[in-house]
Specification:
The chain is built from nine helices and 19 strands. Helix content is about 35%, strand content about 30%.
């Protein structure tokens, strides 16, 4: 018998599944695709283009519906399957990632709140012939008033299959973060800062700089986006004149792509100074080596550790995909590293221009004095510049479809 529990847990007679918060987002896309299909059916005319649009809409609905990102605990086989891909019924159409774990190899299942997200964390038993296994986790999106019920159901169903369950969703990282305040960088704060993805590998000491991600002077802003401006106007003209939405989207995306290439060329020319520079940040126990791309005088510098007065790391939370079979959860985003040096002006390193989170770990491991300062700035605000026009476009498209359907019906 199939039953649904609070939107995140599914149970059948022989299995129990945890559905990720990321998978649940597919219902939004299904709703939009269904609206498009209904409007397409109302406005249907017997032509190759109309038939093609209906087929595409049906295929998109099937693909979206088949998307799965979940953990399945099979009591009959005594196996945990972590599946990410597309499946209809029991038939997998396309597998992005899949892992199976025998119950005998599972040490325990931990319930933990990590960076404001409810995480179910899998711990495997250590073996003599294999390295320590990596943690795997899946996030649950649960309303506050249902957390206790979900925890109880998780414990009941997992325990019934002989699995050991520890922890609570109410338990947070050992370090309490002040709201938009500063804390000193130490072993406790760096572990809480990174969350469950603890880095046990050797400390990274060399950090390649991505020129494309370095900030450009404001005079280059419109030069970069001119192709996008032109193609957006062309896309609007195409929609107005021919109602060919697909062609308009292609033209708009082409403009964004050209802008990206243009920014890459401008960054290379602005920061390379006509010859290939050294673009790696190097950290050691004695000094920091900063490449010339961060200085107006185009001269690289080696800063002694004893000359550094303070390092202030500005950061804030943002939603991110954890990679592999991990789900969306809040993780820190580093905006800038502000380095104050004796008898010199403040040096600012843009966090997006290199692997700044691993750099924070290196600062801690190599004994640099630093502070983590949470600020109210929104990370990667450009995402909203894309999402806003997309929402307006979808609303306009639905409105136009309803308008045409109305006149088709009264004609």
């Amino acid at each position: 018998m199939f039953s649904k529990i609070t939107g995140t847990l599914l149970k059948t007679e022989s299995s129990f599944s945890i559905i990720s918060a990321f998978e649940k987002m597919k219902w939004v896309f299904l709703f939009l695709n269904l609206i498009h299909l209904v409007l397409g059916t109302i406005l249907f005319t017997l032509s190759i283009e109309s038939v093609g649009r209906l087929i595409i809409s049906i295929l998109l609905i099937l693909i979206t519906f088949s998307y799965q990102r979940r953990w399945c605990f099979d009591a009959s086989r005594k196996v945990l399957t972590q599946f990410h891909g597309f499946k209809l019924g029991i038939k997998a159409i396309y597998t992005i990632a899949q892992q199976e774990f025998d119950y005998a190899n599972i040490k325990n299942i931990e319930l933990k709140k990590v960076h404001h997200a409810n995480q179910v964390i899998l711990h495997l038993k250590d073996t003599e012939h294999t390295p320590p296994p990596k943690q795997a986790s899946i996030s649950l999106k649960v309303k506050t008033n249902k957390i206790s019920a979900v925890v109880q159901q998780l414990r009941t169903h997992l325990a019934s299959q002989g699995l050991n369950v520890i922890g609570q969703f109410g338990s947070t990282n050992s370090k309490e973060w002040p709201s938009f305040g500063s804390v000193s960088l130490d072993q406790d704060t760096v572990k809480a800062f990174i969350g469950i993805n603890l880095f046990n590998n050797p400390v990274m000491r060399q950090f390649p700089v991505i020129l494309f991600m370095l900030p450009l002077p404001s005079l280059y802003f419109h030069r970069v986006w001119i192709p996008s401006y032109i193609n957006s106007i062309l896309a609007l003209f195409i929609v107005y004149s021919s109602q060919n939405v697909i062609a308009a989207i292609v033209v708009g995306l082409f403009g964004v792509g050209v802008s990206a290439v243009r920014r890459k060329l401008i960054c290379d020319k602005h920061y390379t100074f006509g010859y290939p520079p050294i673009t790696d940040i190097v950290i050691s126990e004695e000094y920091l080596a900063i490449p010339a791309v961060y200085f107006e005088n185009k001269q690289a510098k080696q800063i002694k550790k004893t000359d550094i007065q303070s390092i202030d790391i500005e950061w804030n939370w943002y939603k991110n995909n954890g990679g592999e079979l991990n789900e969306r959860y809040s993780e820190p985003y580093v905006f800038n590293l502000n380095i104050d040096v004796k008898n010199e002006s403040r040096l600012v390193l843009a966090g997006q221009s290199f692997d700044s989170k691993k750099f924070v770990i290196a600062l801690c491991e190599l004994g640099y004095s630093a502070t983590l300062t949470q600020i109210t700035k929104t990370p990667m605000v450009w995402r909203y510049y894309i999402l806003g026009p997309l929402v307006v476009f979808l609303i306009g498209l639905i409105g136009y479809g309803l308008y045409m359907a109305y006149f088709r019906l009264i004609a």
